Amino acid sequence: MKCRKGLSSVVGIVFVIIALLSVISYITYSMNILDKFNQSVLVTTQENMDRANEIFSVEKVSLNNNKFNITVQNNGNLPININRLWVENITHPSDWTYKYDVSQPVAPAEMVYNIGQNIPLTALESQSYKMKLVTERGNTKEFSVNSASFAPLNIQLVALPPTVSDGFTTGLIMLVTNNGSDTLINLAPQTPSKSSGLATCTLGSVSPPSYDTLPPGSTAIFRWDLTVSGLADESCTYTAQLQNPYPGNTAQATVTLKKLKITSTDFSTHAGILSINYTTFRWSTGGGWNAGWNVPNGGDLVFSMELINNNASSTIWISNTTSLVFYAVSSSSSVPYYIVQNVNVTPTPATISQPYTCVGPPPNDYCIGVPPQGKVTLYFSASSPGSSAENKFSGTDTQYTGFLIVFGKYSDNPNDAGSLYGQNIPYLGLLVN
Amino acid sequence: MRDGTNLKNRFLSRYHRRRGLATVVTGAIMLSAVAILGTSTVSWSNSYLVTHQETLERSYSEKTNKISEFITIENVWAGQTITEKYLNVTLTNTGNIGVTITEIKIVGTTQHVEPVTNGEIVPGGVYSTIINYEWNNNDAIDIFVTTARDSIFRTQILAQ
Lengths: 433, 160
Description:
Largest interface: A-B, 38 and 37 residues
CATH architecture of the largest domain in chain B: Sandwich
Helix content of chain A: 10-25%
Distance between the termini of chain B: 128 Å
CATH superfamily of the largest domain in chain B: Immunoglobulins
CATH class of the largest domain in chain B: Mainly Beta
Shape of chain A: rod-shaped
Number of helices of chain A: 2
CATH topology of the largest domain in chain A: Coagulation Factor XIII, Chain A, domain 1
CATH topology of the largest domain in chain B: Immunoglobulin-like
Radius of gyration of chain A: 46 Å
Radius of gyration of chain B: 38 Å
Helix content of chain B: 40-55%
Oligomer: heterodimer
CATH class of the largest domain in chain A: Mainly Beta
Number of strands of chain A: 29
Strand order of the largest sheet of chain B: 4-3-6-7
Shape of chain B: rod-shaped
Largest sheet of chain B: 4 strands, antiparallel
Number of strands of chain B: 7
Number of domains of chain B: 2
């Protein structure tokens, strides 16, 4: 009886052991499967992270001997392998696309050059290409070469300054903004063409001649010097565009000639209240007026010139001590020619027809007034204030430097106290022989 | 007395034989029942576990393969001939297992589904196909690539 009872227990234990072994095996198997799945997830996650951490940029693209020369920088911390290069010709009528295996490894923080030099493709400067680099992990980098024709760009042409005086140089500035999503490569402008205007305009060379790359959102700036000459209000209108341009993607700028003007206020501030018109300077020894700077030695001389009052509100009354003084360059000896009322240049020698005398008040002083922003022709000849005797050069000196010394007062009437004013107006020269 | 003793011995002997048989039979029945129940239970549990093992293995395999496959839509080029327009789609298997492309769906101004029959790509392999599609200039076109494991990869291009 005991033996039979033991057999049942043994059989039962055997089954229990079998059941336990099965369960343990299943659990172990499940754990292994779970572990392998975790490993797969980790591997895939790592691959995705590597893919996301792959960072590279196209630094430069040029054409060497009609072959692309692409420089790529690995900006990430993983080594990358550039597998393929896609090239699409945008300019060509058939719009072809080719794929090339390049297989070019790039170490982290390193650059590789000459990508594209070994592919069987002849590239032309005159045509635009859209290109794409593909890495082994599947990342891509698109860029365009000579691609101004791909889409219209934001182009502006401005003249700085837009108005200049005859013979002056202005700057012609071309601003090109990449408003697309691709990096533009080899961006170069055409020389702007003069589309209208009568002024004579001379365009200098462009600076810089091109941009290697222009990322999206960036602006390229090209500059030309433009020298303009001609008459007032004449202009030059220039039209600028890029090489391989998108049709109609142009910009215009106009430069206009203006007279150089200095207002009386400017003159008052910077050059003095009184000024002379140098072109009106004349001298005479009789027989009419002469222009120029070569006067005879030893003869009675008379001079004339226009004096301009730049004061906007008050008349200046000229004192009889106002004189035109010439200093010999070599000896510093001076020869003054005092102001007179009028001269007679018809006879020879010229004479003082009216010395600087007047009834006044005050008598014989402040005889001539120059109205506000007005001008008066003054005559100089007297050897002393108020004298009727003409002065002359009599020494051996030949070169003289001269200036006008004006004494006067600003007032409504010659007899008013007014504001006394004196000014030296230089830059005259004479050759006496 | 001898006869009475013999009779008693025979009775006792018969009595003991009957009682032993019942025990044996009962024991046999119990043993059989235990064996049958044990075998059934073990067989059932084994079968159950094997079924679950297979399910687990299949699930593991499917999920592992699915997360391991990766397709790069390397280039989509909008081209045209005199008579028709098309998209040239190039795919690269950048994962570490083989991939089978089953269909490519193009969604632009119109939608087009292109079934793919020979879309097996080995790891690192490239698959290119031309799909007739009437694109318009500057259309934004979405491209969806579906694999046999129901993974979907997508990209978008600007047709030009």
